[in-house]
UniProtKB/TrEMBL annotation:
<comment type="similarity">
    <text>Belongs to the TonB-dependent receptor family.</text>
</comment>
<feature type="domain" description="TonB-dependent receptor plug">
    <location>
        <begin position="44"/>
        <end position="150"/>
    </location>
</feature>
<protein>
    <submittedName>
        <fullName>TonB-dependent receptor</fullName>
    </submittedName>
</protein>
<keyword id="KW-0406">Ion transport</keyword>
<dbReference type="InterPro" id="IPR000531">
    <property type="entry name" value="Beta-barrel_TonB"/>
</dbReference>
<feature type="signal peptide">
    <location>
        <begin position="1"/>
        <end position="24"/>
    </location>
</feature>
<keyword id="KW-0472">Membrane</keyword>
<dbReference type="GO" id="GO:0015889">
    <property type="term" value="P:cobalamin transport"/>
</dbReference>
<dbReference type="Pfam" id="PF00593">
    <property type="entry name" value="TonB_dep_Rec_b-barrel"/>
</dbReference>
<dbReference type="GO" id="GO:0009279">
    <property type="term" value="C:cell outer membrane"/>
</dbReference>
<dbReference type="GO" id="GO:0006811">
    <property type="term" value="P:monoatomic ion transport"/>
</dbReference>
<keyword id="KW-1134">Transmembrane beta strand</keyword>
<feature type="domain" description="TonB-dependent receptor-like beta-barrel">
    <location>
        <begin position="203"/>
        <end position="609"/>
    </location>
</feature>
<keyword id="KW-0732">Signal</keyword>
<dbReference type="InterPro" id="IPR039426">
    <property type="entry name" value="TonB-dep_rcpt-like"/>
</dbReference>
<keyword id="KW-0813">Transport</keyword>
<dbReference type="InterPro" id="IPR012910">
    <property type="entry name" value="Plug_dom"/>
</dbReference>
Length: 635
């Protein structure tokens, strides 16, 4: 497929809305999950879910959001260079565009990217409070693209009249990362503002390059929740970010760079009736991303790429507790997608601009029933009406069983997913208006067991997913007479490839996780076997390692001091370009933290301790041994 650089989608809405129906917190000792549209205790969730709280996130000292995600079961990433470059997330072997990103209960995407999804490359761990990862097809609640799973990020929320936190760190390659946030809560108003800045000299994006490709970004956000009445609240959110990313061409070093600006706005009204048993949210959300690429060595037109993606969503979400153990979630949505792209040539000819649009109207409903304390069953249905593809309906069904004292939880579910072709795949010079939506059907079954008075936990899950009509980039032949698809539609201009429904896949595998803490000593790890097969040729899907593993062993003193070593393994995989095989690799990190006071600590880490030479995408560079040190505080 054609490779453009999609830069900084930086923390897009780390300050965006969280409605009452999407809260994620802990009730007593019970973990509550918010990614299911309504708060659900984790023992009642039928699908495989991972929950990471602030303490665990800070212990990993991440820069990017993917630094955390890649250390959980079943997740692999591909990054085309250093921080800020195009980054693809694959959950259980699903394509990069098959993962949905949700920030504070709101789904985000960029309609001008090739797959219409979120680019995780510029998403940093700025103002995060919590991360939830829901695996498997989830289109009933989250619509198109949710074939592999959903990543739900919950940002910090004020709980005191005035509070704040900040962190600053520096390290290898002249890297500087600083972030801060402050807010307050009162009977009438909750507010929070946050900002961050990041800069690094970086590494060469191409593996054979000699010059460094730097990256910088700045972002700011603001949130305001006004309680207009006891059961009525108004949410207003705003976000702006800009970034610059240097990158290389196919042949190596270049002076090319890209600029990205992102705007996000949210306004929502939340109302509750029937003593809080009937909750309602009405919201309007708009996201816009502008991207421009430049090449200073061009003699006439230095701009090489121009794109704008805009999504506007109108949402109604309701929740109804009919009785103890009977809960309903339902809603209606309208999504309006707009895209504009252009690739100006280095000449004086008029610039050809591609404009495209599509709308999706949706209805969904899900019921969760607990006929007995230990058993929860759930089922859901969603219907989408796409302005270009007509109607599509998906279903889900599952159950969670936690007998006795809850030390054992058994989960099983069946779910369906779909993905409508992106505007880029349909209407650009590589597009095809004949594309059909992708469909997936998956199921999983797993068991989780707590041991030693909850000081240790083990879990094993088996999953399987079959997908049809998958969209991939088909290359045109270089010899002979090209077929009709190798001409830009409506012209006699040849193209080197086009998007087509050419793949059918089957993914199956096992995810095993374990954790233990005895006194100050802790250990945790996971192992994933992912057999993701292209059913047309029987080969493992590109850039999907068959084996993934993570392990962390450490010491955490009651005073707040800690020291740990983290290992990450990715098995061999096949790259897209010519079937090049990527070697397997081990990465080792060291992390430490010293608490100077209750709310002040110093920390440091060494990443890729043994300076391992590895690749996640053929021809692209990766970070070698890196040193970082910083401080964090809160008030």
């Amino acid at each position: 497929m054609p490779e453009y650089r999609f830069f900084t989608l930086p923390a897009v809405a780390f300050g965006l809305s969280i409605a009452p129906a999407a809260l994620a917190n802990a009730v007593g000792e019970e973990i509550v999950v918010s990614v299911l549209r309504t708060p659900v205790e984790i023992d009642r969730v039928a699908a495989s879910v991972t929950v990471l709280d602030l303490e665990e996130i800070e212990a990993q000292q991440p820069v990017a959001l993917t630094d955390v995600l890649v250390r959980t079961a079943g997740i692999g990433i591909t990054r085309n260079g250093g921080y800020g470059t195009a980054t693809s997330l694959r959950i259980r072997g699903a394509d990069a565009g098959h993962s949905v990103l949700v920030i504070d209960g709101m789904r985000l995407s960029d309609t001008s990217t090739t797959d219409g999804g979120a680019d995780f490359g510029g998403l940093f761990a700025d103002d995060i409070e919590r991360i939830e990862i829901l695996r498997g097809p989830q289109s009933v609640l989250w619509g198109s693209n949710a074939i592999g799973g959903v990543v739900n990020v919950v940002t910090a929320r004020p709980t005191a009249p005035l509070e704040g936190r900040f962190a600053v760190e520096g390290g290898s390659r002249s890297t500087l990362n600083a972030r801060a946030g402050a807010g307050g809560s009162s009977d009438a108003i909750d507010w929070r503002i946050a900002g961050s800045t990041f800069t690094t000299d970086g590494i060469s994006a191409r593996a054979n390059g000699n010059e460094r490709d730097g990256y910088s970004r700045q972002s700011g956000s603001g949130t305001l929740t006004a309680r207009l009445a006891p059961d009525l609240a108004l949410d207003l959110r705003g976000y702006y970010a800009n970034g610059r990313n240097d990158f290389d061409g196919f042949s190596g070093d270049s002076r090319a760079y890209g600029l990205t600006q992102t705007w996000s706005a949210y306004s929502g009204l939340n109302a509750a009736f029937l003593d809080g048993r009937f909750t309602n949210r009405i919201a309007v959300i708009e996201n816009r991303t502008d991207r421009d690429n430049f090449d200073p060595v061009r003699s006439i037109r230095q701009q090489t790429f121009d794109a704008q993606g805009r999504t506007r969503r109108y949402e109604y979400q309701g929740g109804l507790a009919l009785a103890d153990g009977i809960d309903l979630a339902f809603g209606a949505e309208r999504e309006e997608q707009r895209m504009r792209t252009a690739s100006p040539g280095n000449n004086t000819a008029p610039i050809s601009v591609t404009r495209a649009e599509a709308d999706i109207d949706s209805l969904y409903a899900q019921a969760r029933i607990s006929p007995m304390q230990a058993l929860t069953a759930e089922g859901g249905i969603r219907h989408d009406s796409h302005s270009r593809f007509g109607g599509n309906t998906v279903f889900s069904l599952g159950a969670a069983f936690a007998p006795g004292n809850g030390n054992t939880v058994v989960r099983a579910n069946y779910a369906e997913g779909f993905k409508a072709p992106s505007l880029y795949q349909l209407f650009t010079q590589y597009g095809s208006a004949d594309l059909r939506p992708e469909h997936a059907r998956g199921w999983e079954a797993g068991i989780e067991q707590s041991l030693a008075d909850d000081r240790a936990t083990i879990a094993v899950t088996y999953f399987q997913r079959k997908s049809d009509n998958l969209i991939d980039f088909a290359y045109c032949p270089t010899t002979g007479t090209p077929p009709a698809q190798c001409y830009i539609p409506g012209t006699q201009v040849e193209r080197f490839g086009y998007y087509a429904n050419i793949d059918r896949t089957r993914a199956r595998g096992v995810e095993a996780t374990a954790s233990a803490q005895f006194g100050p000593v802790f250990a945790r790890g996971n192992f994933s076997w992912i057999d993701a097969e292209d059913r047309s040729d029987g080969r493992q899907l590109p850039r999907v390692p068959r084996y993934l593993a993570n392990a962390t062993l450490g010491y955490s003193a009651p005073a707040g001091h800690s020291l740990s070593v983290a290992l990450r393994y990715a098995g061999k995989s096949r790259d897209r370009a010519g079937g090049v095989m990527l070697d397997d690799y081990w990465l080792t990190d060291l992390r430490g933290e010293v608490a100077l006071a209750e709310d002040l600590s110093l920390y440091g880490r060494v990443e890729n301790l043994f300076d391992t030479d590895y690749a996640t995408a053929s021809g692209y560079g990766t970070l070698g041994r890196s040193f970082y040190a910083g401080a964090r505080a809160r008030f």
